[in-house]
Amino acid sequence: MLVDIPDAGIILVSVLAFLCGLVTLYLYTKIRSPGSAVRVAPTNLDRIDYYERELIDMKIRLDSMDLDGKSFTSPDLPKKRVKSFEEPEMEKQEFVVSKPATAPRVPNMSFEDSLVHVLKLITNRPMTSRDIEVTLGKSREHVSRFMKKLFEDGFVSRDNSVRPYRYTITEKGRARVGSDEGGIVYAVSQ
């Protein structure tokens, strides 16, 4: 089999192109800084330091646990006693929490019945909305809105100098209670 050998000029150009490629690759790697691609952002350095400290701490703990299991002392010395972390058995006492005694809830009343009831309560002594809330068994929001309405209608006055407000009955409120002496009538649903 005959192989055709090309001209010497073609071989020389091929070898020179190959060498130029090697030189270009060498210069490219030298000019390009090797640390630029591997450079770590400053925010990650703190995280790396933190995890490095954690790993060192875990390694120290692991080594100390390994050392606790082995005895490096002479046989003449007393052996190390390991404390037991088992809980001693004790009688379990059951604590029963009794429910606090609550005032019986006032049945549903109409606005007029609630008005008379609250005015009668305030006739005895000044009260806060919390006192009325406990007595009526209604929510804080309900009592606050109700007392605001009574204040705006002039049935009660409130002491703005202290918080929570203390409500007292006015003359208009006394007249309302006096005109409605028949007692409280509860709303009945069918």
UniProtKB/TrEMBL annotation:
GO molecular-function term, one example from the UniProt record: DNA-binding transcription factor activity
Record flagged with keyword Transmembrane: yes
Residues annotated as transmembrane: 6-29
Domain HTH marR-type per the UniProt entry, residue ranges: 113-173
Alphabetized Pfam families for the sequence: HTH_27 (PF13463)
Keywords: Membrane, Transmembrane, Transmembrane helix
Signal peptide bounds: none
UniProt keyword Transmembrane helix present: yes
Highest taxon, organism lineage: Archaea
Protein name, UniProt field: MarR family transcriptional regulator
Organism: Marine Group I thaumarchaeote
Lineage, highest ranks first: Archaea, Nitrososphaerota, Marine Group I
